[in-house]
Amino acid sequence: MAPVAVTETPTPSLQPKIQQAATPLQKDDTYENYEGSYKFAPITEAEVSRAMIKRYFNTMYDRVISDVVIIGAGSAGLSCAYKLGSTRPDLKITIIEANVAPGGGAWLGGQLMTPMVIRKPADRFLRELGVEYEDEGHYVVVKHAALFTSTLLSKTLALPNVVLMNATAVEDLIIHADPKSQGQRVGGVVTNWTLVALNHDTQSCMDPNTITAPVIISATGHDGPMGAFSAKRLVSAGLLKELGNMRGLDMNRAEPAIVNGTREVAPGLIMTGMELSEHDGSNRMGPTFGAMIASGVKAAYEAIRIWDS
Ligand code: AHZ
Question: Where is this region: Disordered (predicted)?
Fold first, then answer.
């Protein structure tokens, strides 16, 4: 499909401005500088507030029209964002994450232990990121899941075309009539700050906001307080007959099923990661993360395919 033309020009202040420190840190950074007379450059409280507000709301204003929205910044959503953002610097990619801390379940391995297991051949993504691992033959182990997630997060956020809005929940999907297919097409997301989204039962009429994009990628994980969001919404909106519901743990069946099942599940909506297990009724894999990486990467290629068609 031909993507909707994005006519808005980016707000000039969104262009990244990286200024060198007036004095190179190396030259000045000696122990004496920290000995009782440490001095900061002056600042006013108003400057701090305006520094944040201007950038946050300029970004929000700009990203109301995005090229791709990724819902969920877990291992699948972030792998997708990195691959898509680095392959296609021309696309405006907006990640919406409900939690304050992005990363989903990828800060730990299994049972709150820190090493992260990744089955081959997904280890090639670690080399692309520059994350070290121990090679165990059929699989590799990263010493701490947080090393993987923090590296992926920092490399993704460093891409100038990628924006992350965390503490922001997708509350609904924008679903338009699609004259081309005579059916319906997902064309954006409905957002609210998560603390607002969690309080609809206690306060009245806290209406949301919207972000439109020709391609939405849902990576909200398996069912939970927020998880499987789009899969569940597709059912209630009549775009999916019923949820498949995640099946029991079987690593060898689960990982290929998630990667091979990564696809455009409804017009305009690609699904990746463990959310697919709820959509399709596939097994869970427990604490092996190769499928999350490979599914995210495949979702990026799917997005490019749709965008270019
Ligand atoms: O906060 C959620 C998490 O960070 C976010 N999210 C969910 N609903 C959202 C919404 N709006 C915005 N409505 C939302 N954000 O999505 C992220 C999902 O990350 P995850 O780590 O839960 O999912 P994943 O598919 O990236 O990784 C799954 C990892 C698992 S679970 C599992 C098992 O249970 O067997 N095995 C693996 C490897």
Answer: 1-22
- Give the count of alpha carbons within 13 A of 72, CB side only: 30
Tell me if the bond preceding 214 is cis, omega within 30° of 0.
Answer: no
Distance of alpha carbon 89 from alpha carbon 67, whole angstroms = 11
Closest Cα to residue 93, out of 71, 120, 118?
Answer: 71
> Has the ipTM of the complex gone over 0.90?
yes
What pLDDT does residue 306 have? Answer: 95
Locate 194 and state its tokens.
């998560």
Token pair recorded at residue 109: 């391995």
Tokens (6 digits) for 273: 């990661």
Which SS3 state, helix, strand or coil, does residue 210 take? strand
Find out whether the beta carbon of 72 lies less than 6 Å from any atom of ligand 1. yes
Residues whose CB falls within 8 Å of the CB of residue 247, separated by 6 or more in sequence, listed in order = 277, 281, 282, 283, 284
Examine the pLDDT at 167 and tell me if it is beyond 90.
yes
Query: Mapping DSSP to helix (H, G, I), strand (E, B) and coil, where does residue 65 land?
Result: strand
The 10s digit of each residue's pLDDT in 202-255 is 999 899 999 999 999 999 999 987 899 999 999 999 999 999 999 999 999 999
CA distance linking residue 291 with residue 94, whole number of Å: 23
Which residues define the annotated binding site for substrate? Answer: 76, 97-98, 105, 170, 207, 222, 274, 284-286
Instruction: State the distance from the centre of ligand 1 to the C-alpha of 240, rounded, in angstroms.
Output: 20
| Gap from CA of 238 to ligand 1 centroid (Å) | 23
Chain-centroid distance, C-alpha 22: 35
Instruction: Give the phi and the psi of residue 189 in degrees, each rounded to 5.
Output: -130, 155
